[in-house]
Write a structure and sequence with these properties.
It is a single chain. With about 350 residues, the chain is mainly β. It folds into 3 domains: about 110 residues, Sandwich (Immunoglobulin-like), CATH 2.60.40.10; about 100 residues, Sandwich (Immunoglobulin-like), CATH 2.60.40.10; about 100 residues, Immunoglobulins (Immunoglobulin-like). The protein has 2 helices and 25 strands. The two termini are about 55 Å apart.
């Protein structure tokens, strides 16, 4: 009985396989997919950044019924699509044209953008074509985003630098570097001995922390004499943190029921001054705490002025299961009252035999 059923599936499997190998078919033959493309991938080769590429994908209705295209979706905002109203509904044997435009502004390196035709066939709603190629840059930065890192509020950032070189061999000069509006960034530039330009970026003043705002973004604009790239935008990111932080941010413990397990984390002040830990809560009833002051190399590790090592001990009475919660280290500093971290505990059933 099983062999008879398997024999019936062999033609379907082989038909689907060889249908897939046929050039232009996006879906397996024999599945009743009504649309077929003449080509599924267009390779535009190499272009320079900011150039546009246009291509037309031809598709046709190979079924015996009318097919309606209900939506067209591109994988990226850099890819525009267009289908005429007449081609959104095809009678058997009719063909349509999907026009695709790829805009390489802000893109670099290998690109592969897809476009999906959503049809009214619930069995196969996504028919995919793609446009791909290589985007070359007139100006090549050493990094794509300048990350100033974590900056404690009330302090200045450590400046970060990136270099800029010609990608097409044309000589150029950097004439000016201007920060985006807001006044939070400052920048400078100079030519190195190797002949490339180095741009340095940092905060113009001490870091500010508004209510609920931690991750911040900006940009600098590099103005050049390059004939094809007079201006380059470089994104800048930084994170404003509290002055008292927990570098670990998460403590994860795994144990067996009936055993004692311990985990540690540090709480440090990365600006000048001292502080005291007032409480750590909310802790599970089966978790105890021990607080010790950090000294010497332990503080130097974080560049901190003061800090504490906290040890959490899980008692043998901890129940089996997963126990996770946010805990807060409360300090006596009015501006840094709660330092948050995640405490995750997993207790497995004991493997020890009773009485052993």
């Amino acid at each position: 009985m099983r062999w008879k059923r398997f024999k019936k599936t062999i033609p379907v499997i082989l038909g689907a396989y060889f249908g897939f190998l046929k050039g232009g078919d996006f879906c397996l033959a024999g599945t009743g997919v009504p649309l077929q493309f003449d080509e599924k991938v267009f390779d535009f080769g190499e272009i320079w950044q900011d150039e546009k590429v246009e291509h037309e994908f031809v598709f046709r209705n190979v079924s015996e019924k009318t097919v309606e295209i209900v939506d067209v979706r591109a994988s990226c905002g850099c890819t525009a699509t267009m289908i005429s109203e007449e081609d959104m509904e095809l009678e058997p044997g009719e063909q349509g044209v999907l026009s695709v435009t790829f805009d390489s502004a802000g893109r670099y390196g290998k690109q592969n953008k897809t476009v999906r035709l959503i049809i009214d066939d619930r069995q196969q709603r996504n028919l995919v074509c793609a446009i791909q190629g290589l985007v070359k840059e007139y100006l090549v930065p050493s990094v794509r985003i300048v990350n100033l890192g974590d900056i404690p509020k009330g302090t200045r950032s450590t400046p970060r630098a990136f270099t800029l070189e010609s990608g097409d061999g044309n000589a150029f000069e950097v004439t000016e570097v201007t920060p985006s509006s807001g006044g939070e960034l400052k920048c400078s530039f100079h030519r190195t001995e190797q002949g490339v330009f180095e741009i340095t970026v940092g905060l113009a003043e001490v870091a500010r922390m508004e209510e609920g705002e931690l991750l911040k973004e900006g940009a600098v604009f590099v103005h050049t004499t390059h004939p094809h790239k007079p201006k380059l935008r470089m994104p800048i990111r930084w994170k404003v943190t509290k002055e008292i932080v927990c570098p670990q941010r998460r403590i994860v413990l795994v144990t067996e029921q009936g055993r004692v397990v311990k985990g540690t984390f540090d709480v440090v002040r990365v600006t000048e001054g001292t502080f005291e830990i007032a409480a750590i809560e909310p802790l599970h009833e089966f978790v105890s705490q021990k607080i010790e002051e950090l000294e010497g190399p332990a503080l130097q590790k974080y560049g901190a002025s003061s800090g504490y090592k906290v040890t959490l001990a899980v008692s043998p009475s901890a129940p089996v299961g997963n126990h996770m919660r946010e805990i807060f280290v409360k300090t006596d500093d009015p501006g840094n009252t709660d330092v948050k971290l995640i405490f995750a505990l997993r207790v497995h059933p004991s493997k020890r035999k009773k009485g052993s």
